[in-house]
Every structure is written in structure tokens, then in C-alpha cells.
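Hi Y.,

Following your request, here is the sequence exactly as I used it, all 186 residues.
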Amino acid sequence: MFRQHLILFILNVGIFFLSTVEAAIVTASATDDDATIMLEIEDTLIVGLNQQWGTVRITVVNTEIDFSLGDSIEVSVLDDDIISDDVVFNQTLIVTPGEVTAGLVDRLLPLIFTPPSDGATDFSLEIFAEATVLKDLCGIGCGSDNPQTTILEVTLVAAPVPVPAAVWLFGSAIGLIGWNRKFRRR
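Below is the corresponding structure, written out as C-alpha cells. Let me know if you'd prefer a different format.
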């Protein structure tokens, strides 16, 4: 009897661990004049799950044109599509007085979003990050810093369906009842 319980327990634990998803972090970065953007994201995302999948760091140094209080930085993470790029994450940062004084913007943003689903179970996104630095003192016709990372291939998987412990216990009990009946008839 103990042997059957042990076998069922090992099978249940094995099935549980097979349903988990392991992910590694992939990175890309780019620099354009004074601005550097770095994207860190998990290489496997679960469709429909809204959580933090990585980070975006934007660093802008005040070298060409001084910062002013009206400056802003548009940070976006996009999915590279054939027709048009889909925005996955977008945030506008306003330069603070402390950043104007220091001549440096260095912010780490949590990359929180829900991976899209088009009904497929396994597919991928081609993710990249870009930033546009807009300085008020620059004036008309002045180019803005616009770093854009290389494309990172990210795999999307369907969410594993958790099987409640009660189902496993119920299945084990049914199996044990059947096994017990079989040996009582002998």
C-alpha cells in the first residue's frame, strides 16, 4: 500500500514540475549622441499574464544642449511587425529639477505589460526599445537624440493550466479504491 502511495506522489510531483516555465534574461542596448537605452526582458513570456517582464533603463547626459524643466523623454518598447510596430509599453518622463541641476537623467523603469494573444499557443515577438529625448532649448530644426535597440526574439507561450491539489488527491483516492476492490475480490 505504501508503494502505491509513493508512486502516485512521485507522478503528481513530476507532472507539476513539467508544467512550469523557465525563462532567461536577454538584453540589448543602443546609444545616440547623449542618450543610452538598455532593454532587459525575459526570453519566454506567458500570454495574457500582466506582470513585470523586465526593465528599461534610459540614461541621458547633458553634453550638447542643457536640460531645462520643459524637457521630456518618450520611452517605448515595441513589437516589430511587418505592417506597423505595435506598442507594448510606453511612458513619457518629465525631467525633474534635480536632473536639470545634475545634468543627468538616469531612470530604471519596470517593464510591465500583458503579452498579446492572437489565439496561437506558441509564437514569438520581435521586441525592441527606443527613446526620444525632446529638449525645449533645442529649438526648431534641432534633431533629438533617438537611441533604438536591436530586436530581441521573445517566445510567447500559453499559460500553464494549474491543476488543483484536490484533483490529484481525488484521482489518487479513486485509484486506491479500485486497487483495494480488486484485491478484496481475490
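Strands lie at 25-32, 35-42, 44-46, 51-61, 72-79, 86-94, 104-113, 122-134, 152-157.

Thanks again,
Q.
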